[in-house]
Design goal:
Elements lengths: L2 H13 L15 E9 L2 E9 H5 L8 H16 L1 H4 E2 L7 E11 L5 E10 L10 E2 L1 H4 L5 E8 L3 E7 L8
Parallel strand pairs: 1-7
Antiparallel strand pairs: 1-2, 2-5, 3-6, 4-5, 7-8
């Protein structure tokens, strides 16, 4: 990896807040973000979406039904990342949830953020990554993807899971 790409990957990953962090991004309903940094066979992905788009409200759950809805979404994000971000099976990639949680924002707006690590047997350079966020969460219509790798820099919008990015 040349120094320019390494610096960009590091900047991307350091610029993304951890769950519960102080960094705040613009909050647009129907729109999620996915920041991806990949170097060689390994990488980090950070998904963030308005809580309302995922489970129907942005405040702390008040009822048993709301707690159940919130926990179901958080469980999908924790346990099924490979169904949301898809790598070519021949790459032998595994996605692991590092942190998944609710990020409270000022003004009553809350987001859900999930941070994943990816480890592949074969570097994913040049191979398409596809997405199924809209299928899992119909309230998420678009995902703004920013990808920095040792072979590519990509910024695109995926609408209703149509499209891909190539590290």
């Amino acid at each position: 990896m040349n120094m320019n790409h390494r610096s960009l990957c590091l900047a991307l990953l350091l610029g993304v807040s951890s769950v519960g962090g102080a960094q705040s991004k613009a909050h647009t309903h129907g729109e999620a973000t996915l920041d991806i940094g990949i170097e060689g066979r390994r990488g980090t992905l950070v998904f963030r979406a308005p809580a309302e788009d995922l489970y129907g409200f942005e405040r702390a759950p008040r009822t048993s039904a709301e707690r159940t809805a919130q926990l179901a979404v958080l469980n999908v994000l924790r346990s099924q990342p490979a169904s949301l971000v898809r790598f070519d099976a021949a790459l032998g990639c595994s996605l692991t949830a590092e942190t998944v949680g609710v990020v409270e924002e000022k003004g009553g707006h809350g987001d859900v953020q999930a941070r994943y690590t990816v480890d592949c047997r074969v570097p994913p350079a040049g191979r398409p990554m596809t997405f199924a966020f809209s299928k899992a969460f119909p309230g998420v219509r678009t995902v703004k993807v920013q990808l920095v790798s040792d072979t590519a820099q990509v910024g695109t919008t995926i609408t209703n899971d149509r499209g891909s990015v190539r590290p």
